[in-house]
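User: C-alpha cells in, sequence out, please.
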C-alpha cells in the first residue's frame, strides 16, 4: 500500500479545525472628538432655549427729556359767504376776470355771445402766436406748483379739474385781447353779445360744488369723505342756457374752516380761545378763533374763524391745516411702563427714622406674656400730601396699630390710595416711582421731571410694567 504524507497531513489539519470556535472580530473603539463637541453645544443650545422661554424677560428703558408729538394735522371744510351768479341769456360764455381776482361792483366779469361771433373771433385768434406776460406766466406756474403740492393718487379725478382750471386760466388771459373788439361788434348794431358785470364786490371763482350755502351746524362726518365730493368746473367758451351758473363770488373776507375732533381735544382748543393755524398748501400761518360744535349727527367739530387769507384759498373746499400748539416738555416714557399701585395712607406724625436713618413706622406688638411693645418696620415713602405719607402695603396689613414716636397715640391702618408711576431699576430691583403726567398720546407720556418722589433724566425703568412686581430683584 502506498502512503501520501502531504495529503494525510492536510486531512488531519482539516479534521482538527472543525473542533475550534469561531469568534466575531471586535473593532477597536475610536472616539470622535468632533461628535462630542457638537453634542455638548447642542445640549447647551437646547438648555438656553428652554430657559429663554420659561424665564421672565424684563426689558429696560432709559428715560430722556423730550416732547410729545400730538397729531395736529387736520383736513377741514372751508365755509365762505358765496354768491352764485346765473345767466339771463343763452349763448357762448367768455370770461375776462381771472379766477381768484377781486372785482368791484359793476365790473365786467364775462360776456354771453348769442350769435357765436365772438367765439369765431376767438377761434381765429387762437392761430396767432399769443404771448403771455411774465406776470401771467408766473400765475400759471404758481397754480401748477400749488396743485403738485397737494396731489393725491387716490384722488386722480382731481387731475381733470386741474386741467380745466389751467385751460380756463390761459383762455381768460387770452380773452383780454378780444375785449378791444367788443366795442366794434356792439358799435355795428349787434345786440347779440351781453356783457355780464358783477352784482356785488367779491372774489371770482369759476367752479361750484353745492356747498355754497352750507353752514357749520349742517356739517356731518360723511362730508369729509372726498370720494363722494364733486366739483363742477365752469369752462370758457362753453354753451350756457338761461338760468345756468356763470360764476360765483366770495363776498366776505371773514371765513371759517371746520375740522373733526374728539370732545377732549375740542375742549383743550376751546380753552385756548385762539389757535395758530399753518396752511399746508403754502406754509403760511394765521390766527383763528375757536368754537366747538356738537352737531345733530352726534359728532364734535371745531370751527376755526379767520378774518384774512380767504383769497388764497377761495377755490378750495377741502384745506389741510396744522394746529401750531405749544408742546409740553418733560421726561418721555412709554405708556407700557406706566402702572398703578396701591399704598397705605399714614399720618406724617407716625413716620420716623430708625438707627440706620431709614424711614419707617412703629408697629404695636405683644410679647408672649401679653405685654405691649413696638417694632420698627422700615418702609419707603412713595408720595406725600399735606397730612399723609404713602407707604408700602407689603410690609403692613390693614388693622395694624401704629404708635406715634414719643407718645402713646395710636393709629389703626384703615386707608389706602393708588398712585400712577413706573418701576425704576437703577438699583437692581423694581422700585416704584410716582409720576405726574403732563400730556399723553397713544404711545408715550410726558411727565414732570425732578419731583420729590419721581424720576430724573437717564433713570432706567421697566419697559413693560406688567412683567414685574414691586421690589422684585432683577436677575
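Assistant: Sequence out:
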Amino acid at each position: 500500500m502506498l502512503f501520501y504524507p502531504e495529503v494525510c497531513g492536510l486531512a488531519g489539519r482539516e479534521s482538527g479545525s472543525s473542533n475550534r470556535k469561531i469568534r466575531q472580530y471586535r473593532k477597536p473603539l475610536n472616539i470622535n472628538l468632533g461628535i462630542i463637541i457638537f453634542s455638548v453645544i447642542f445640549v447647551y443650545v437646547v438648555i438656553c432655549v428652554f430657559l429663554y422661554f420659561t424665564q421672565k424677560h424684563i426689558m429696560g428703558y432709559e428715560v430722556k427729556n423730550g416732547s410729545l408729538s400730538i397729531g395736529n394735522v387736520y383736513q377741514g371744510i372751508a365755509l365762505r359767504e358765496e354768491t352764485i351768479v346765473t345767466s339771463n341769456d343763452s349763448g357762448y360764455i367768455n370770461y375776462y376776470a381771472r379766477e381768484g381776482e377781486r372785482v368791484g361792483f359793476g365790473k365786467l366779469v364775462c360776456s354771453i355771445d348769442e350769435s357765436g361771433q365772438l367765439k369765431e373771433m376767438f377761434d381765429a385768434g387762437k392761430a396767432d402766436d399769443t404771448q403771455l406776460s411774465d406776470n401771467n406766466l408766473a400765475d400759471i406756474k404758481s397754480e401748477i406748483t400749488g396743485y403738485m403740492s397737494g396731489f393725491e393718487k387716490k384722488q386722480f379725478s382731481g387731475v381733470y379739474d386741474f386741467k380745466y382750471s389751467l385751460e380756463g386760466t390761459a383762455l381768460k388771459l387770452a380773452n383780454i385781447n378780444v375785449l378791444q373788439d367788443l366795442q366794434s361788434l356792439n358799435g355795428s348794431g349787434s345786440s347779440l353779445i351781453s356783457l355780464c358785470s358783477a352784482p356785488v364786490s367779491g372774489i371770482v371763482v369759476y367752479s361750484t360744488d353745492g356747498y355754497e350755502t352750507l353752514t357749520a351746524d349742517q356739517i356731518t362726518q360723511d362730508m369729509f369723505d372726498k370720494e363722494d365730493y364733486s366739483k363742477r368746473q365752469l369752462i370758457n367758451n362753453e354753451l350756457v342756457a338761461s338760468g345756468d351758473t356763470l360764476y360765483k363770488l366770495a363776498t366776505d373776507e371773514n371765513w371759517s374752516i371746520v375740522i373733526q375732533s374728539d370732545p377732549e381735544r375740542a375742549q383743550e382748543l376751546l380753552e385756548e380761545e385762539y389757535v395758530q393755524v399753518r396752511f399746508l398748501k403754502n406754509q403760511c400761518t394765521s390766527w383763528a378763533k375757536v368754537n366747538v360744535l356738537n352737531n345733530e349727527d352726534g359728532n364734535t367739530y371745531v370751527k376755526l374763524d379767520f378774518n384774512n387769507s380767504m383769497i388764497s384759498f377761495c377755490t378750495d373746499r377741502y384745506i389741510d391745516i396744522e394746529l401750531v400748539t405749544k408742546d409740553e416738555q418733560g421726561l418721555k416714557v412709554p405708556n407700557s411702563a406706566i402702572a398703578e399701585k396701591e399704598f397705605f395712607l399714614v399720618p406724617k406724625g407716625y413716620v420716623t427714622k430708625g438707627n440706620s436713618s431709614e424711614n419707617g413706622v412703629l408697629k404695636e406688638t405683644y410679647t408672649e406674656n401679653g405685654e405691649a411693645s413696638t417694632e420698627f418696620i422700615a418702609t419707603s415713602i412713595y408720595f406725600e400730601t399735606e397730612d399723609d405719607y404713602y407707604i408700602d402695603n407689603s410690609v403692613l396689613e390693614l388693622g395694624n396699630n401704629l404708635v406715634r414716636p414719643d407718645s402713646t397715640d395710636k393709629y389703626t391702618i384703615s386707608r389706602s390710595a393708588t398712585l400712577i408711576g413706573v418701576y425704576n431699576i437703577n438699583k437692581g430691583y423694581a422700585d416704584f416711582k410716582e409720576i405726574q403726567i403732563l400730556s399723553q398720546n397713544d404711545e408715550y407720556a410726558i411727565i414732570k421731571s425732578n419731583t420729590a418722589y419721581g424720576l430724573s433724566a437717564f433713570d432706567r425703568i421697566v419697559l413693560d410694567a406688567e412683567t414685574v412686581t414691586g421690589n422684585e430683584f432683577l436677575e
